[in-house]
Design brief:
By secondary structure, the protein is α/β, with parallel strands linked by helices. 34% of the residues lie in helices and 21% in strands.
């Protein structure tokens, strides 16, 4: 683990200015990526769209102030172009919590998309457990099974999709690059 301020003292990093920031916006392709993945899961599991709700799960505001807004934004975009019976945004750290999924929808199928960047504990253990899914020790995602009389398909974190690389590269390209020249900060576009 590297402490960001310590990077400035590293001889190879010193000429650079390192800026670490949280999410500033929801990338326009985030909703497209989520929609495409929901459709893939729908097809793979032969689910009826009118009997299927999509549940998008984000962290919430405890980890980053923009996390809740980003999750709600993507859920709203999915809801505006309806492909499924319902779309809900739920949260690991906020209300409505993951456990409320079963009370929010009467539909018999749930597609759960963790709107998380990686495949860490929350995506691979916490979300399925909180949904009541039986989870083998070495589960591969997506996992599917019955919980509370519903058929639930729980995917890996959306950030594990191959398309995320292109989004990250695009964001990095769009960001201003800052470096030192002769002791002064210079912004390079």
């Amino acid at each position: 683990t590297l402490h960001p301020q310590a990077l400035a003292f590293h001889p190879r990093i010193r000429p650079l200015c390192v800026r670490i920031c949280g999410a500033e916006r929801t990338h326009p392709r985030s909703a497209t990526m989520a929609r495409e993945r929901a459709l893939e899961l729908h097809t793979d599991h032969n689910l009826e769209p009118d009997q299927t709700a999509v549940i998008l799960i984000g962290h919430g505001t405890a980890r980053h102030s923009g996390s809740r807004a980003a999750t709600l934004n993507v859920a709203g975009i999915l809801r505006a172009r309806p492909l499924f019976a319902e779309v809900h945004a739920l949260f690991l750290d906020d209300q409505p919590a993951i456990e409320s999924a079963y009370g929010l929808t009467r539909h018999r199928n749930l597609i759960v998309l963790p709107f998380l960047i990686g495949s860490g504990y929350h995506a691979t253990r916490d979300i399925p457990r909180r949904l009541g899914l039986d989870l083998p020790k070495r589960a591969t995602f997506p996992i599917a099974g019955y919980a509370r009389d519903r058929f639930v398909v729980c995917d890996a974190g959306i950030g594990t999709r191959p398309q995320i690389t292109g989004i990250i590269l695009e964001c990095a390209r769009d960001a201003a690059v800052v470096r030192y020249e002769s002791g002064h900060l210079v912004t390079v576009n």
